[in-house]
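QA checklist item 7 of 12: single-chain prediction sanity check.
[x] sequence parsed
[x] length recorded as 122
[x] structure emitted
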Amino acid sequence: MDIKKWKVMLAVDHHGSFTRAGLELGYTQSGITQMMKTLEKDVGFSLFKKVGHGTFLTDEAKALLPAIRSLLHAEEVIRQEIAALKGAQTGTIIIGTYLSCSIHWIPKIIQEFQQKTPRHSL
C-alpha cells in the first residue's frame, strides 16, 4: 500500500471533501477519488460515507487512524534520519496562529527565515 494514499485519506477526513483535499495536496478531485477507490480495494472495505454535502470516515476507517498516524510519523522520522546522515537538518514546523497574524506577520517571518537560511526550503 502506498503511504501517499494514507496521507490523502487523512486530508479528506480533515477537509470533509475530496475536492478540498485535492486543492490542498495538488490533485484533482477525480485523482483523489481514484486513489481512494484503489485504497478501498486494497483494504477490502469502504473508507468513506457521504452525508449531505460532506464526506466522513466509516467506523472501520476511524479504527485505522492511530495506526495510520504512527505509520506517517515513522515515515517522517526515517526521512529526517536519512537527511541527518547526509548532514542536513530537516523537520516539520507547525505554526498555530490567529488569522490576522497569519496575514500580517507570518509571511514576513518566513521571508526573513529564507533569507537567513537559504539552504532550507519551506
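[x] summary fact logged: The mean pLDDT is 89.
[ ] second reviewer sign-off
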